[in-house]
Amino acid sequence: xxxxxxxxxxxxxxxxxxxxxxxxxxxxxxxxxxxxxxxxxxxxxxxxxxxxxxxxxxxxxxxxxxxxxxxxxxxxxxxxxxxxxxxxxxxxxxxxxxxxxxxxxxxxxxxxxxxx
Amino acid sequence: xxxxxxxxxxxxxxxxxxxxxxxxxxxxxxxxxxxxxxxxxxxxxxxxxxxxxxxxxxxxxxxxxxxxxxxxxxxxxxxxxxxxxxxxxxxxxxxxxxxxxxxxxxxxxxx
Lengths: 116, 111
Description:
By secondary structure, chain A is an all-beta fold. Chain A has strands at residues 3-7, 10-13, 18-25, 34-39, 45-51, 58-60, 68-73, 78-83, 92-98, 110-115.
């Protein structure tokens, strides 16, 4: 069964850090690029970051460049999002999604709340 | 690339058709010949789910009452007969250029 499970969300203060994880199963993780997409409360979807299957290339939305780092461990079938210098407008549910089936697989998301 | 959806909300009687428009600020036609336009549905309290990829290809398990069409910068998602389970927010997304961008979303309600 193809599955993505996010974890690591929580409540933090503005300026603090958090690391999200996304554990994959049911497909060959090392052959798929991976995305992070977020959704602020009551708002639409916002693409955040992408990493190629081998980690060779990484891309970010402008609002998180220099603060967020996407990475992966193919030996552990796990995707990460290191979030530093968090701001209140980073408050959102963060989803990981699989590239290799056209973003046909999403996790349930993990909620990040940044308080001032 | 800016994605603009219309309408932003839709109220439909079960069994009736519905359509959503999505326009991109740049062509989504790649030099490979593929057009990278996707449609997602986010049902209440759930993660987004892929409905359509590359304009008109239904994802695995998606009912054939959903269809996508369009080219270049203008795209449409059609539902031939809306059912109660179709309620939620529909998003188009361009995947030709990073950062990928989504439309604002169209909320479908059942009358």
